[in-house]
């Protein structure tokens, strides 16, 4: 089995990690630097404005000496870790916090242009070629009598800000690594809750496909995966059971075919070799004929049952008079009833009872039920067929006073080939298929069939059919 799902998940994970680092390295670092730069520029600008409004303007108004101004700027230089200049509009530096006062050799910033900041209040660069590295610079004008007397310029190296930005970025990387390691928990969860159970399920399906339907699949989780595994085990169990039933069916069919065939070949053999004298041939040929009839009946029943199951039973529904069908079916049993002195009592509702169903299949149901009732009735007894209408249903009951069905056999009589021990003596021709066919037919009509029986007292089979409401027409 290829472990592709696992590798795919791992790959997705690595892609996530790669993009995480990529985004931090490219976008977050740029954003952090930008943010720090702006923040620094803003605070330096505040300072510059403050100096311009205090020491610088006091210097220009001659209220403090150059030395005093220089001392103040030096202190602020240490506090701000930046170079502070007071310069004339022409670019001449009057006070420089980094250098001592030298009135004779004042440095001039060539090409100084106070409008260089544009709409912002800072610039980044070598400050008109005065530095070798990039500097962040802000300047605030020193005004007096509505005139610009000079500028306070504060300069700080960009490398310091970059350093701050890098240490912040390192924290981001560290957080990312921690986050990545923590998210490994998801991988563990995925492995434990999805991947391993899925592997178990796949292994089980391979076993089932290979014919080992008894393979135990154990996934205990109560989630979708657990449900899938449980459904799969259930399916395998059902398949195994189906196979078992199939075997039973074949065994039953073989058994039911073998006994009549054995007796036919036995009698024919005995007739041929003279064990049965010719004057008794007729009697034994009659037995042989009975046995072949039984085989024909068995074959026909099997065919019917097979068709019912494979085709999902196609019903040819029509509306017919149920009373008429009951009477006709009863008529076919007249001979045997006379022979066994059985009386069939008909208690039918109405002159006619219109039902919508498959006529030939309902005929077969009635035939099977009546055939059983007659087979398992004692001589000289009564059988009652009764119809009762309730709402839009008609209930048909076929009741005999025969041998009845033992309580423990009741739930099996609908199974194929099932015959109660009691019935074996009375009915040698029975195939045990009649009631299973009957049940299939009634179920195909979406109706029900039930049995009430007492051993030794008799049985009553009741089934329902939809009747046509006469008022509707
Ligand atoms: P069969 O074709 O052998 O009659 P069925 O499927 O019709 O098979 O019936 C299954 C078994 O149910 C019968 O063999 C019999 O043991 C029992 N049974 C069915 N109908 C009756 C009945 N009216 N009285 C007693 N036993 C019955």
Summary keywords:
473 residues; alpha+beta; Beta-Lactamase; Helix Hairpins; Heat Shock Protein 90; 3 domains; five-stranded antiparallel β-sheet; five-stranded mixed β-sheet; 12 strands; 53% helix; binds adenosine-5'-diphosphate
Question: Compute the gyration radius: what is it?
Answer: 53 Å
Low-confidence stretches: none
Shape type: rod-shaped
Topology-level CATH name of the largest domain: Beta-Lactamase
- How far is it from the N-terminal to the C-terminal residue, by CA? 67 Å
The whole-number mean of residue pLDDT values reads: 88
Ligand types: adenosine-5'-diphosphate
Number of structural units classed as domains: 3
Explain what you see.
- This protein is an alpha+beta fold.
- The protein has three domains: 5-164, LuxQ periplasmic domain, N-terminal subdomain (Beta-Lactamase), CATH 3.30.450.220; 224-309, Helix Hairpins; 313-472, Heat Shock Protein 90, CATH 3.30.565.10.
- Helix content is 53%, strand content 17%.
- The chain has helices at 4-60, 66-80, 158-182, 184-209, 224-272, 281-310, 322-332, 334-339, 359-375, 421-426, 434-444; strands at 83-87, 93-96, 122-125, 135-144, 147-157, 317-321, 343-347, 354-358, 382-390, 393-400, 449-454, 458-466.
- It has a five-stranded antiparallel beta sheet with strand order 2-1-5-4-3. Strands 7-9-10-12-11 form a five-stranded mixed beta sheet.
- A hairpin with a 3-residue loop joins strand 11 and strand 12 (458-466).
- Helix 4 (184-209) runs parallel beside helix 5 (224-272).
- It is rod-shaped.
- It binds adenosine-5'-diphosphate.
- Residues 368, 372-373, 376, 400, 402-405, 413, 418-420, 423, 427, 430-436, 459 line the site of adenosine-5'-diphosphate.
């Amino acid at each position: 089995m290829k472990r592709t799902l696992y590798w795919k998940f791992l790959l997705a994970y690595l892609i996530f990690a790669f993009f995480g680092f990529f985004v931090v390295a490219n976008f977050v670092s740029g954003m952090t630097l930008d943010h720090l730069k702006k923040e620094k520029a803003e605070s330096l600008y505040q300072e510059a404005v403050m100096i311009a409004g205090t020491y610088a303007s006091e210097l220009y108004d001659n209220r403090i000496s150059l030395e005093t101004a220089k001392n103040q700027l030096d202190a602020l230089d240490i506090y701000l870790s930046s170079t502070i200049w007071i310069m004339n509009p022409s670019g001449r530096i009057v006070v420089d916090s980094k250098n001592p006062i030298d009135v004779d050799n004042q440095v001039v910033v060539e090409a100084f242009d106070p409008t260089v900041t544009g709409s912002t209040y800072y610039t980044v660069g070598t400050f008109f070629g005065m530095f070798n590295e990039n500097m962040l610079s802000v300047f605030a004008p020193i005004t007096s009598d509505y005139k610009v007397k000079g500028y306070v310029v504060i300069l700080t190296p960009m490398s310091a800000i970059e350093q701050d930005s890098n240490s912040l970025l390192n924290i981001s990387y560290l957080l990312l690594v921690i986050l990545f390691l923590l998210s490994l928990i998801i991988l563990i969860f995925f492995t434990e809750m999805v991947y391993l159970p899925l592997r178990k399920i796949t292994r089980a399906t391979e076993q089932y496909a290979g014919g080992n339907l008894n393979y135990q699949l154990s996934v205990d989780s109560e989630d979708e995966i657990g449900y899938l595994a449980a459904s799969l085990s259930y399916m395998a169990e059902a398949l195994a059971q189906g196979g078992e039933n199939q075997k039973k069916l074949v065994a039953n069919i073989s058994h039911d075919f073998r006994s009549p065939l054995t007796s036919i070949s036995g009698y024919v053999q005995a007739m041929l070799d003279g064990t049965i004298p010719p004057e008794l041939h007729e009697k034994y040929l009659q037995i042989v004929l009975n046995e072949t009839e039984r085989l024909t009946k068995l074959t026909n029943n099997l065919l019917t049952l097979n068709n019912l199951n494979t085709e999902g039973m196609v019903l040819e529904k029509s509306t017919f008079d149920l009373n008429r069908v009951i009477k006709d079916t009863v008529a076919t049993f007249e001979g045997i009833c006379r022979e066994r002195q059985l009386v069939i009592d008909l208690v039918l509702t109405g002159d006619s009872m219109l039902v919508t169903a498959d006529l030939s299949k309902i005929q077969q149901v009635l035939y099977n039920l009546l055939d059983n009732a007659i087979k398992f009735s004692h001589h000289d007894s009564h059988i009652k067929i009764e119809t009762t209408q309730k709402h839009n249903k008609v209930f048909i009951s076929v009741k005999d006073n025969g041998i009845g069905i033992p309580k423990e056999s009741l739930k099996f009589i609908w199974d194929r080939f099932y015959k109660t021990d009691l019935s074996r003596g009375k009915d040698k021709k029975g195939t045990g298929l009649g009631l299973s066919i009957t049940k299939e037919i009634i179920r195909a009509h979406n109706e029900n069939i039930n049995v009430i029986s007492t051993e030794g007292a008799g049985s009553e089979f009741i089934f329902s059919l939809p009747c046509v409401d006469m008022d509707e027409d």
